[in-house]
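Lab notebook, bench 4. Still working through the backlog of constructs that have no structural model yet. Next entry is a single chain of 144 residues. Request: give me the structure tokens for it.
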Amino acid sequence: MATVTNLTLAIQVVNNGPNLEAQIEVEYDIVFSSFDQNSNQPYSELCRLIGDDTGITPAEDGADDLIPGGQLFPVIILPPFNQVASNGQASIHRTRTRTLPLSALNEDQGAVTNPDELRAQVTLTPVPPVSVVRESSQVLLNIP
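Model written out:
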């Protein structure tokens, strides 16, 4: 099964006139197993930002939040455009970028000011084999 390695998230805050924006860059490698390389096993690929609220101190609501507009790839989930396969390669390097309003990253909106905890999340899901169905020509049979 393919694995994701060297996953990094970088966020640059930039001033775009009256608005602050976040320039987001996620980089990672997809490393394919020998089975993936030999079979060209496809995977659906998803790269998104999450607000990390699990296992942190101080504890918050305990549930990770999806960041609005934070799906870096694919923009639209439409097979086969969201799929990746090895095509005989051992690994593939990915760089995904997106610019969002800085306010979109404010995932901890409470009475107490606290930093927003953000992570990049990459999910690879194996695409199951597709069934192939064929029918022969019709045979007419009169059974007495």
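Notes after review: Helices lie at 34-39. The chain is about 5% helix and 45% strand. Flag for follow-up if needed.
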